[in-house]
Amino acid sequence: MTSYSPLLIWGMIRNNNAFLIKKRNINKPFSSEPYNLTNLSSYKYSGLVHKKAVGIVDAPDKKGFTVVYKKQSKQFRPSKNVVKTTMKSGARRSLHKLKRLMNCNKYRMELTKSALRRASAVLRSQKPPRGKKQRPKKEA
C-alpha cells in the first residue's frame, strides 16, 4: 500500500472538506476535525493529513480528559490506529503526564504546547462555576 505526501493531501483538502467551517468576515476558516487541537484549518494542526495526530476530549465521566492519538505503525489498519488514554489523576499530575507522553515518545513535539492548552481548558470547563458573593444591603 502506498501513502501520499502530507503536503499533497493538504493541497487537495485545504479548501474543501467535510470539517471546514467558513464564515463571512473571517480570514482563516475553522475546522471541526477530531484530531485538531486549535480548531484552526491549517496544515500544522490538521489531523486528517498527518500520520501522527493528537486530540484531547472530555473524559466520558466528565472527570479529567482523554488523549486520543494515532499510531503511525498501524496507519493502514483503521480499527487499531487509534489509542485512547484517560487521565484523571488531578490537574497538575495529568498535565505532567501529557507533557511526558508527548516529549518522551517524540510524538509531534511542536504540538505539545497546544495540547497542554487544550487539556487545561477542558479541565477548567469541568470545574463548578464560582458563586457570586452577595453584598449586604445598605440600610436607609
Walk me through what this model shows.
- The protein has 140 residues and is an alpha+beta fold.
- It has 2 domains: 1-49, Enolase-like, domain 1; 51-127, Enolase-like, domain 1.
- 29% of the residues lie in helices and 15% in strands.
- The protein has helices spanning 6-13, 78-81, 91-104, 112-126, and strands at residues 20-21, 30-31, 54-58, 65-70, 82-87.
- A hairpin with an 8-residue loop joins β1 (20-21) and β2.
- α3 (91-104) runs antiparallel to α4.
- The protein is globular, with a radius of gyration of 19 Å.
- The termini are far apart.
- The mean pLDDT is 90.
- Keywords: Ribonucleoprotein, Ribosomal protein.
- Residues 120-140 are annotated as: Disordered.
- Residues 8-125 form the Ribosomal eL28/Mak16 domain.
Provide keyphrases for this structure.
single chain; 140 residues; alpha+beta; Enolase-like, domain 1; 2 domains; three-stranded antiparallel β-sheet; two-stranded antiparallel ribbon; 29% helix; Large ribosomal subunit protein eL28; Ribosomal_eL28; Ribosomal_eL28/Mak16
The outline comes out as globular
- Structure annotation, total helices: 4
Class inferred from helices and paired strands? alpha+beta
Largest sheet: 3 strands, antiparallel
- Give the class-level CATH name of the largest domain: Alpha Beta
- Strand content is 15-25%
Q: Over all CA atoms, what is the radius of gyration?
A: 19 Å
Residue stretches low in confidence (pLDDT < 50, at least 5 long) are: none
Assigned CATH architecture of the largest domain: 2-Layer Sandwich
How much is the average pLDDT?
A: 90
Number of strands: 5
The name CATH uses for the topology of the largest domain is Enolase-like, domain 1
